[in-house]
Design a protein that fits this description.
Strand order of the largest sheet: 1-2-3-4
Helix content: 40-55%
Number of strands: 11
Largest sheet: 4 strands, antiparallel
Shape: elongated
């Protein structure tokens, strides 16, 4: 091809990227001849906004032309295909495999990364020319399909010949070829490591860099089948909170997240590479992943959310991280204050280990100043810290007494009415439900009086441990009433086997039955909440006192007291209270 021919070829025919094309146009380089002249004179790198990547792209194009000549395929009015068109939401994410396209055009679109109808309908002029193997015939076909979709909308897909579409062969060569567009997306937002490509393909890193900067995308890792084996491996990743699994069958699974609202799973073996973003997975898997927060949090953050303890102040829970410095680092990465980050990560407000005033200390102080049913708090140096603390938090002494259950005793008549309410909590009642757990709570005022079989026990312990594991992994998990009832029944059943001479203590014994060493008290708090919810919502006896809820006493009475002995004891206490003058 001589100089005159080069002078007649515009640079728009060279399939350059938009950045390179626009940079050359601004430099008034309009023809192939002008481009060759600028390259040979070493002027390309002087062009504004034309960096090394664009320079290498142009050099590759010119080398290809010099080695093998340059052919132009005319045909197809490109302007017809790039006019403005707003793609309806209902067809935006439909795969191009659902279109009535020739195999050549379909594989070209997939190689180019235009794998959905939305992407195909928005293809720019430069993107059309960038697809290898698309000539005038394919352009005409693309225009025709676009026009049909514009006219028919969703009806186009409903009228498609399914048998013809499903029998159409997909280019198998691209199952393991590098999917450049997907790789670049993962590199940009999902912390994909380019070094993995060196491992997968057995090539040097310099070779990998050349591959991912190619103009033509011949690979396709998307829109693949998720097999049962893939599903099990994915669930293993989610359950174990890992970012990599290497199974014996030869498949390697990688987990990547953008730490905002999406994640991706890569399945790599000798035959193919598959990539599934979150919205490409079945809905049940999407729900499991979102519940585990893997789409929002990094694995380090998931670990950070459990590396701390919960502290209660003024009946409100706070999270105290084991490593405040690391906690603050992750808050800065997300551009949040440490208080905002703590709420985002744990659902609780932030507190430091230096915070010395807790509910335990407040209750200890109130106990020391509670005499004859009244709080007597003198104004002196020893009580100044308490008065200052409640004042800073907007409470009066009376309000604090009400909050913690230390308000003045009611008269004797109200006391007797309260005892009658408790008596009602010890009555059997009828319900319409056929559920065995509902009936157990309704028919047994003392839950531990119900003898359950060993088989039922095993199933109960297994199910409730699963709930506890889930809650400890994700503190934002909420238990419904049925789960609270199951966990409470498990606690009471365990308590029947408690050795009162065990020096390690009641709660150490109970939490260890669920398989945990609860040094921080986190599991104890979860179990206590379940006992309170299950008992009160089922109108079952629950002991309270001026010092707060009596979880241990409630559990032990339900577990170790027979209904007959309890009723005799209760009648004695009621008569004594009713007829004795204080």
């Amino acid at each position: 091809m001589d100089g005159l021919q080069y002078d007649q070829i515009g640079i728009e025919k060279l399939n350059l990227t938009v950045r390179s094309y626009n940079s050359l146009k601004r430099a008034r380089i309009n023809t192939l001849q002008q481009l060759f002249d600028a390259y040979q004179e070493g002027k390309l790198l002087d062009i504004k906004n034309l960096g090394m990547k664009s320079y290498q792209e142009i050099k590759d194009v010119l080398d290809d032309i010099s080695d093998g000549g340059f052919e132009i395929e005319e045909g197809g009015t490109i302007e017809e295909i790039v006019d403005e068109y707003e793609v309806p939401n209902e067809i935006e994410n439909i795969s191009v495999c659902e279109l009535k396209l020739s195999v050549r055009l379909l594989n070209g679109l997939i190689r180019g990364g235009f794998d959905t109808v939305g992407k195909m309908m928005r293809m720019s002029r430069d993107e059309i020319f960038s697809i290898h193997g698309i000539g005038s015939k394919s352009v005409d076909e693309l225009i025709s399909v676009r026009n049909s979709i514009k006219e028919d909308g969703l009806e186009y897909f409903e009228s498609a010949d399914r048998a013809d579409i499903e029998s159409r062969p997909i280019d198998e060569r691209h199952k393991r070829t590098v999917d450049i567009e997907t790789v670049n997306k993962l590199r940009e937002n999902y912390r994909f490591k380019t070094a993995w490509l060196s491992e997968w393909y057995g090539v040097t890193r310099s070779r990998v860099n050349r591959i991912v900067h190619k103009r033509f995308n011949q690979g396709n890792w998307l829109n693949r089948e998720l097999t049962d084996i893939d599903r099990n491996l994915l669930l293993q990743i989610v359950k174990e909170k890992k970012d990599f699994v290497d199974c014996e069958e030869g498949t390697k699974v990688y987990f990547l997240s953008n730490n905002e609202d999406d994640c991706a799973f890569l399945f790599v073996n000798d035959e193919e590479i598959k990539c599934f973003f979150l919205n490409m997975l079945p809905e049940d898997l999407q729900q499991i992943i979102r519940e585990s927060r893997l789409d929002q949090l990094s694995l380090e953050e998931l670990e950070l959310a459990t590396a701390g303890r919960t502290s209660s102040v003024l009946k409100k829970e706070y999270f105290v991280p084991d490593s405040p410095y690391k906690f603050r680092q992750f808050a800065n990465i997300r551009g949040m204050s440490i208080d905002e980050y703590c709420l985002f990560l744990t659902g609780k407000e932030y507190s430091t280990a230096q915070a010395t005033v807790t509910d335990e200390k407040i209750i200890e102080f109130l106990n020391a100043h509670y005499t004859n049913g009244k709080l007597m708090i003198p104004s002196n140096n020893s009580t100044q810290w308490f008065r200052s603390f409640i004042s800073r938090n907007g409470y009066s002494i009376d309000e604090i007494a009400e909050l913690y259950g230390y308000a003045d005793n009611q008269n004797q008549e109200n006391d007797i009415q309260g005892l009658e309410i408790i008596e009602d909590d010890m009555r059997k009642y009828n319900i319409a439900s056929e559920d065995w757990l509902d009936r157990l709570y309704a028919e047994n005022p003392l839950i531990g009086n119900k003898i359950i079989s060993e088989k039922t026990k095993e199933r109960l312990f297994s199910i409730t441990k699963g709930y506890i594991d889930q809650r400890l992994r994700n503190p934002l998990t909420k238990f419904n009433l049925k789960v609270q009832m199951q966990i409470t029944l498990a606690i009471i059943t365990y308590a029947k086997e408690w050795d009162t001479g065990d020096e390690s203590g009641f709660w150490h014994y109970i939490t260890s039955q669920f398989g945990y060493r609860d040094d921080t008290g986190q599991l104890r708090g979860i179990l206590c909440d379940c006992v309170l919810g299950a008992m009160q919502k089922n109108r079952r006896w629950f002991l309270t006192s001026a010092t707060g809820y009596q979880y241990k006493s409630t559990i032990v009475v339900h577990a170790l007291t027979t209904e007959r002995s309890w009723m005799h004891f209760y009648e004695f206490l009621f008569d004594f209270h009713h007829f004795t003058t204080f």
